Each structure stands twice: as structure tokens, then as C-alpha cells.
Amino acid sequence: MSSSNVSVPAALKAKIAATRAKLDDHVLETVDWHFNPKTGTPFWLDYAKNILKWDPRKEVKSYAGLNKFPLFEDEWLRGGPVRRWVPKAYAKMPISTFETGGSTGVPKSRISYQDYRIDYEMFSRTLPDKYFPKGADWLHVGPSGPRRLRLAVEHLAQHRGGICFMVDLDPRFVVKLIKWGEMAMMERYKGHVIDQALTLLKAHPNVKCMFTTPKLLEALCEKVSLSKMGITGIFCGGTEMTPQFHRFAVEELLGPEIYFAPTYGNTLMGLAVHKEPTKEDNWAIIYYPPMPRAVLEVVDPDKPEDLVPYGGTGRVRLTTLTKEVFIPRFLERDECEREAPCAKFPFDGVRNVRPFSRFNTSVVEGVY
Amino acid sequence: MLHLPILRKGRPYESVDKSVTVHHRTREPLVAISQANPGLIRRDMLSLPEVARAMAGFTCAELIALCEKAAVHFMNDSLPLGGATQSPQEYVEQLSATTGLPHVMVRRNMEKIGGVMANMSSVLRGLTRNLDLSILDTGYGEDNRTVVSYFRRGDSLGVVLPSNSPGVHALWVPAFALKTPLVLKPGSSEPWSPYRVIQAFLKAGAPPEAWGFYPADHAGAGEILRHCGRGMVFGDVSTTRKYASDPRIEVHGPGWSKIILGEDEVDRWPDYIDLMAASIAENSGRSCVNASGVWVPRHGKDIAEALAQKLAKFQPRPADAPDAEIAPFADGGVAGRVNRMVDAALSEPGCRDVTAAHREGPRLVEFEGCSYLLPTIVWCDSHEHGLANKEYLFPFASVVEVPQASMPEILGPTLVLTAITKDPELKRRCLKYQHIGRLNFGAIQTNRIVWDQPHEGNLFDHLYARRAFQAAELQTA
Lengths: 368, 477
Description:
The structure holds two protein chains of two kinds.
Chain A: H1 10-34, H2 42-52, H3 56-59, E1 96-100, E2 108-112, H4 115-124, E3 137-143, H5 148-159, E4 164-169, H6 171-179, H7 183-203, E5 207-212, H8 214-223, E6 233-236, H9 243-254, E7 259-262, E8 264-266, E9 270-274, E10 286-288, E11 294-299, E12 313-321, E13 326-339, E14 349-355
Parallel strand pairs in A: 3-4, 3-5, 5-6, 6-7
Antiparallel strand pairs in A: 1-2, 8-9, 9-10, 10-14, 11-12, 12-13, 13-14
Helix pairs in contact in A: 4-5, 8-9
Chain B: E1 2-4, E2 6-8, E3 11-13, E4 18-22, E5 29-34, H1 38-45, H2 48-56, H3 60-76, E6 79-81, E7 84-86, H4 88-99, H5 103-118, H6 120-128, H7 134-138, E8 140-143, E9 146-152, E10 157-160, H8 169-172, H9 174-177, E11 182-185, H10 192-204, E12 211-213, H11 218-227, E13 230-234, H12 237-241, E14 249-252, E15 257-261, H13 273-281, E16 291-296, H14 300-311, H15 332-346, E17 351-353, E18 364-367, E19 370-373, E20 376-380, E21 396-401, E22 414-420, H16 424-432, E23 436-441, H17 459-463, E24 464-467
Parallel strand pairs in B: 1-5, 10-11, 10-13, 11-12, 13-14, 15-16, 15-22, 16-21, 20-21, 22-23
Antiparallel strand pairs in B: 2-3, 4-5, 6-7, 8-9, 9-24, 17-20, 18-19
Helix pairs in contact in B: 1-11, 3-5, 3-10, 4-5, 13-14
């Protein structure tokens, strides 16, 4: 991370430096854990020995030291044995596997023990109690099944003293329907999901908080006023949100009585939280990663080792640093503008994340 | 920079997301167009049944009167354009700037749109086959001594519009007079005409709720067509294919319009060269009603030579030249791609670019920073050649010899067919052939449109259906 191309007040500069120092310490700890023969991850131990042929525990002294690693290839996550990703220290712990992709072919798997709980407890601290009241029940309407969201949202609800109701949506089926040109069937499937959500909302008045995706939120709000149904907080994510959608959601779908918390997350990273919108932001959606457990950077797509200037557009590069998973320098399939640190988040953020334009493929986001 | 807002029930809405359309020549940004997110479109469409009920409160006569007033405003007045205003001349210049269409062609198209609005009464007479329009007000009545009842098939007409030529806007305007709220998705480089039409209607006193103007991406277009009661889509084969089997949607794809000469007339072919050339090249060949084929039993090579000689004289001229005959491509890259496609097809044996020998230089030329494809006439040995039945967005036509006995079936789908013949048998077969949208007998240009003679579907039939009906009060004693 570099903040050289913005003028930064002294107090913020100090905060940035402190955060950076904390990140450097965290990197050393994480690298030591994953490459230690006693606690380490079989994949990384094998990789260091046979591919890198150098010892990251000796060579990596800071976050910048991770640049010695080549870019992480998410293809490594397809197929088994999945246990090669389980750190030896956790070999006897109850392990979950979460999947991403998989509409066709083998999905990518990421193992998890406690991370989703930690990430969502961190996220919980960013939610205002006024709108996400402690003890209120939750409704999850969105992808679940093999996805991390299934357990994560339920844990979030439980962590805040609530119970989580669930309505499942199978995004892989939606992708197939769209590929088949079965748009009418897709609408019916969406209707089926929304009908279940409405039934639960009507039957359980203590549901005040929801997780859902942008498209399902739109579909729900076409049927009912969520405010009248007693909802006070919406946690929204799963697919791209544009600034215009952000404005539309706040001004028209939800209104002033419901708090809208857009998030950017995935199975590999965890959850990036949004910065409260200001007038100057003009509805841009600005996210900050869960530092130091994950770092989001915006890099030149042609030279992914170089950060773009603040405000510049580039590709998202993710580094995840937890005891369960080490993902150095992974190029996401997203692009955005690089956002400067601020007092609340003294590290880099990302603005207006959207599918990476150079892939030039229309992303199928029909229902979810 | 100019800004075009979304119109939600006729009221401007500035989106956070805007797309910028550039001047085709300078590549300088000219207009920022607010983009509607699909959810916003769908949300607005929830209230369309209510709007349709309000529209039903107007009589057709009242709506026709509004059309006539709006025509005057459209043709003559300065009208709102986002936060600015737009005079008729500015409309011509702005439309030309983003589409490349020369001013003289924009004006012709403007007159076409204004003409339909001004003559709505006769347009509706043609569409409804002279139905007493008060029957649409009451829902039933006597027509030609028969009791009839009509009902509206949907609460709105959603239209996904093209950018190629503004004349197409004349097709959907009558929906307003037929009491149908409109949900329009403009083409990315031609938002000007639908916006101006709406502003003219608003100035005339039309209910704002009847008008939706939603610049959007493909997803937005899909939402409009999925959720409108009735729809209309313009586009190429790949765009229109997915709606081909949806009876709610009227599809306006490529025209493949043609001229044929019968055995009885073909020896007089020189008499028809001007008509053929005009059918091919007017409006710079951009319309689906422009001829893209001349199919004859003999003299094909002579006809191709004569057409080539005539059309090879076309040269690019400044956009405001009163004698401009050809338009540049708004995107020069597209011109290059189309040119390569034509060349690739010409490399197949059995085909020749006849114009090549008559023009000085290549087909693709640059003039004042713009890319033009000059008129091209090809001679094909066989109707099966890849170029024999092709349509491009510039003056292009193939000349093919086929036996009269094989016509018109050999032509395939043909939006407009001008059949120059007096042969009753050929005329009978043309009348029988189901893949002709508009049939002209005799020396009529393919692009001479009479608006009370709709092709590609009849808007009235698209919007209204007739039910069986009896009423005791109407039964004679």
C-alpha cells in the first residue's frame, strides 16, 4: 500500500502508519503459521519446498515481502484433496468447506474452521444497533447451500442474540435457466423464492433484519413495503451494486426508516464493510476490507505488482491472511477505483466494484 | 455537456449512472444520458395498469387532437432538453452529431415523424381498417352493420428502439392515440427523437404519466420487454431472435427488402434504374425498407453495371450539405468491420463488386475525420451466394438472376417487395406468399411508405383484440 499520492493530515498519517505496522506483524505471524512444519498448511509447505524453493519464514519480513510470491491462482482451489488446505494445527478440528463458482465444472473450495464466525463478528460491530437491534430475528433470502453465507448469516444473527430464518436460492440453477433462455421460468423461480420470504415475514413479526441480494431486494420491495413489515436493517451483498442501485435502494426501495448496509465479500476474503455514504460520494459504494485479516488493493491490470493512483481504476487484488487460509496476491475478477484511507478506515479501500471489464463477458446475475 | 434525463411518468429523473455519447466526427463528449437501473424500470411499470385506466378516460378523438397539436410543437418549437432547450435546428444538428446522418436526411425523417403525428386520424383509419374509433372509447359498437367489441391486450407498449434511422419512431407514436402508455428504451446514439416527441406531447397537454423514457443497457431493455403488456423491438438478427416466438413482442429485424422485375417488364430495365437506385440508397441505405436486392430473370449484369455507375457518383459531403447523399458510420470501427465482412464474402467465387470498377479508390473512405462505406452493388452468379441476400447499414445491394417461375418463393423473408410486372400469375403468387411484409405492384420505391399501410405487423392488431360480443340493446327487433 502506498499513500504517497494524496495529501494526508498528520493524525491520519499516524493512524495509517500504525495500521501498516500492525499489518506487517500480522503478515509475519500468518506466514510463520502456514509455513511452519508443525502448524502449516500442506499445500503451502509443499509449494515452498517444490515450487518456491525458498523459505517464506526467512524471506518475508513485512507485508511488502509478500510480493516475492507469484500471483495466487484460484484454480488451485478446484478439486481435491481439500485437506491439503487444512493447516496441520487444525487437522483434528471440525472443518467446513465453502464453495464458490460451480455453475459448470468443479467448484472452488475453501476450508473453514472459525474464520466465518470471526469475520461476521467483526462485521457485526459495524452494524448500528438502532437498525439491527440486538435480539431481533433475521431472515436470510439468498444463496445458501454450499456457500459460506449459509452459516455466516445465521452466526451473525445468533451472535446478535437473534434467530435466523432461511429461504434458499440456488444460483447455479438460475445461471442454467438464463443460459437456456428460460427467462419466464427464471421469473417463476424468483417468485417462488420471494413468496417464501413473504410468508416468513408475515408469520414472524420479530424478524427485523435481513440479508438478501440486490435483485431479490428489488423483487421483495415490488411486493411489499419492508418498512411496514417491520424490517429496520438490510444487509445486502452477493452481486455487484452500482451507485445508482445504491441510491435507488435507499431512496425508493427502503426509505428513511431502514438502514442499508451494502457489502462486498466472497468466500476467499470475508466481508468488506461499506463506508457511510456522504453527499460528496454521490452514492458511490466504498468498501474497506477486514484489516489485517484481508487486504484489498487496486492494481494495474497489465502490471499487477503496481498499485494505481488514488481515484484510478484498476483490478482488485486480494490478500487473505488468517490462520485458516493464506491467499497472497490473488487477482479478483473485479475492477474498481482505488479509495484513499480515512479516519475510520486508515488503509486502502475500493470504490464502485464491478466485474472486470476486460473479461468482456456478460455476468449472469438474473435473480440473485 | 448536454444532459438527457430519464423520464418517469413524464417527469425528469437524473441518474447517478450516465453514459456519454460523443460527436461522431470530433469524438468530443456531446451528451450525458442518464441510465435507468432495471429495478427502477420495473418499479415504475408496477403502476402502468393505473396509468392505462387513466388513459382509457380520454376519447380517441381527444388523443388524436393532442397528436395534431404535438406535431406542430415537434416540428416548430423549442422544447425542453434536460436543463436546456432544443430548437428544431438543434434537434437536426444533435441527431446528426451522434448518428452521422446528414442534416438533410434528419429533416426528411423529422417530417416523417411529424407527418404521422399530424395525420394521426388517417393513420388510425388505415391501422383499424376504417373502424369507428368511438368503439374503442365505449368498448363496443356497430361497425359496417356488425356488432363488434375490442379490448386492449396489454396495459402498456414497451419499445426497444434502434439508432440507425429516426424514421422508425413513426411506428410507435400511434400507440398513444390508441390509449396505450409507452415505455421507451432509446438507442444509445439516437435518444433525441423519442425525447423530443415526448416533450412535444407534454407541451400539447398530454398526460405525463403516459410517457416513460428509460435509457438503459441490455438488461434494462429485457426488463421492459418482459414486463410490458405488449412490446416492440428493433435490432439485428441476434437481438430479435430471442423474441421471435413471443407473441407479445412485435419484432423489427433486418428487412431484406427487394425489387423484382417480371419477364414482361425486364427488357425495359433502364426505365427503372432511378427507382432502384433510390430504393437502395436513399436515407443512406439505413432503413429496413431500403432495397438490398434486385432479382430479375435476365439482364442482371447490365442492371448491376447501370446501378453501379449511378451510385458510384456518391461522395461524402459535409453533414450540413443540402445534397448529402450518404452518411458516415458514427463509429469508424464498425465501418471497418463491415467492410472486412463484405470483402470476405466477395472472396468466395461467384460474386463481384461491380461498383469497384466505377469508383476511384476503395469502398471504405475517410472524409473530414469520418468513415464512410461508399455504395456497393454486387453481382452474384447464384441466389445461393453468401452476399445474394445480405443487408448492411450502408447503400448495398446484390443483383441476382433467377427464373421468374421461382419467384417470389426463392426470395425468402422480404419486408418490402416491389414487383414490377403486369403478369397476373406472378402477381397472384406474390399475393399468396406469406413472407412479404409490404407488397408494391408497379414502379414504387421500396422505401415509399404509406403510414396507413403498416408492415411488420399492424400496431392496432398488436394492441387490441376483438372479442365475440352481443348486447340486447343492439339486437334489432
